[in-house]
Write a structure and sequence with these properties.
- It contains 3 helices and 8 strands.
- By secondary structure, the chain is of the alpha+beta class.
- It has one domain: Electron Transport, Fmn-binding Protein, Chain A (Pnp Oxidase, Chain A), CATH 2.30.110.10.
- Strands 1, 2, 3, 4, 5, 6, 7 and 8 form an 8-stranded antiparallel beta sheet that branches.
- The chain is globular.
Length: 158
């Protein structure tokens, strides 16, 4: 991992509980707060209800933007643009359940095997980020060949 990736990963890890996911419902953008689970520095996972509107929106259009924002004033942020993959593997659900920084059983009392639990993985295409207001906005494009999650999902085709 290079120094830029380390800086971006640090911002995302510190602010994983303060993220905002943008999806589209037709041509209308929809934003909601989410908690991200970071794995292996740059692998971004989220859990949601399999019956949620966002899952329906993702199935129609997997292109999203996830904002990691330092509270309270946003002076460190990372905006991750890419595609979301819906992951149904029980093995992945169990692994992410264990490493989550929050108690997932509050939302899914039946555990990682719950039919209600939908796990999604954000595959970054571009990250706009800044360490401080003074430092300005920077753009990072991940190397597609190096970034592969444990489940084997590669970056979606352009």
């Amino acid at each position: 991992m290079n120094s830029v990736e380390k800086k971006i990963a640090a911002i995302m890890k510190k602010n994983a509980m303060h993220t905002y996911l943008a999806t589209c419902d037709g041509n209308q953008p929809i934003i909601r707060s989410m908690a991200a689970v970071m794995e292996n520095d740059m692998d971004i996972w989220m859990a949601t209800s399999s019956r949620s509107r966002k899952v329906k929106q993702i199935k129609k259009n997997p292109k999203v933007c996830l904002a990691f924002v330092k509270q309270p004033n946003g002076d460190q942020s990372a905006f991750v643009m890419g595609k979301i993959k819906i992951v149904n593997s029980l093995k992945d659900k169990q692994r992410i359940w264990k490493i989550a920084d929050y108690d997932m059983s509050q939302h899914f009392p039946d555990g990682p095997g719950s039919k209600e639990l939908c796990l999604v993985k954000l595959v970054p295409k571009k990250i706009e980020w800044w360490e401080s207001w003074e430092g300005g906005r920077k753009v990072y494009k991940p190397n597609k060949k190096q970034n592969k999650c444990k489940s084997g999902y590669l970056y979606p085709p352009e």
